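Good morning N.,

You mentioned wanting to compare the apo and holo forms, so I went ahead and generated the holo version with PBG. This is what I fed in:
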Amino acid sequence: MNLTERPRRNRRNEGIRRMVRETELRPANLVYPLFLVEGSGQRVPVKSMPGVDRLSADLLVEEARAAMKAGVAAVALFPALSDSKKDTRATESKNPNGLLQTTVKRLKDALPELVVITDVAMDPYSTDGHDGLVKDGRILNDPTLEILAEMAVSQARAGADLVAPSDMMDGRVGFIRRALDQAGFEEVGILAYTAKYASAFYGPFRDALDSAPRHGDKKTYQMDPSNAREALREARLDVAEGADLVMVKPAGAYLDIIRALRDSVDVPVAAYQVSGEYAMIQAASANGWLNGDAAMMESLAAIRRAGADLILSYFARRAAELIGGGPARS
Ligand code: PBG
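and this is what came out, ligand included:
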C-alpha cells in the first residue's frame, strides 16, 4: 500500500508515544477527598467504597502526609457525624471545636504546605440530609445562605485555604464571598461546585457520611443530568459572584460539560470523580473484570483531556504514587 499518512508511526513505541502525548496528569492536579470521624486510632471502612476508610484526625494526618509525599497538592474534607450532632439547622457546622474545625487545625499544624479544602453544605450536619434548610418539605434558598456563610467563615477561621460550597443554592458564592471578606478572610478562596448534577453516582458517598436525604430528592437544587446549557449559566453566575475555581460533578459521565466550561471561563476548572465512579472501577477490578489501575489512570486521563485542570478523586493517592515524581520542590 502506498499510504502517505500512517498515524500508527506515531504510536510505534513507548518513546514516541510519550513524546507526542497530548495530555499529562501531574500529582499536583489531584485533590484527595477524605472522610473524617471522631476519636483517635479510628479507621472505619466504607462498605460501598472498597479501599476508602473514614479516619480519625490522627490517621487522617498520616494519610494526607502520604498523599502529599506522592505529590498530591490538596485534600478535601468531609466529616461523618453521629446523629446526636445533627439538627435541622446544621448548628454543629459552625462549632469552632467541631470535628471538621479541629481536624483542619491539626492538618495545617502538621502539614502547613498542604492545601486544605472544606465542604460547605448542610447535609453532613442535618437531620434532614439535605444541603439546605427544609421547611414543610421545601428547601429554602435564602435562609440557607446565612447558615452556609457562617459555616464557611468558621472553616476559614480553622485554617481552610479554600471553601467549597457544594449545596447549589442560588447566590451562595457571592453571599459567602462577602461574609469571608467581612470577617477578614479575603485570602480564603472559593471552589464552587458550579455544575453539580442530581446524580445517582453519589450513592456510596451518602453511605460514607450517612447523609442520604431522609425524604425527597435533591432535584430542586442539583442540576438535571440532561442539561448542558444550564451549566454555562451557573458558571457565568459563579464567576461573577467571585468563584476562584469552578467545578463539574460527577466527572466521567459529564466530560462534555467539563469541556464546555473550560472553553467559556478563565478560572481553573475542577472535576469531581465521585464515589460511584470510584466504586464501579473498584468493584469490577475486585471481580477481575478489568485492570483496576489501568482503568483508574484511563478515567483520570480522560477527565484531564476533557479540560479539567484539577481532579478530585478517591484514587488521588494511588494515582500519584503510580505517576511518581514525588512532591514539588521549590
Ligand atoms: C453534598 C455532597 C455530596 C458529594 C459531595 N458533597 C453528595 C450529595 O450531593 O448528595 C458527593 C461526592 C461523591 O459522591 O463522591 N454536599
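The first strand starts at residue 30 and ends at 37.

Happy to go through it together on a call whenever suits you.

Best,
F.
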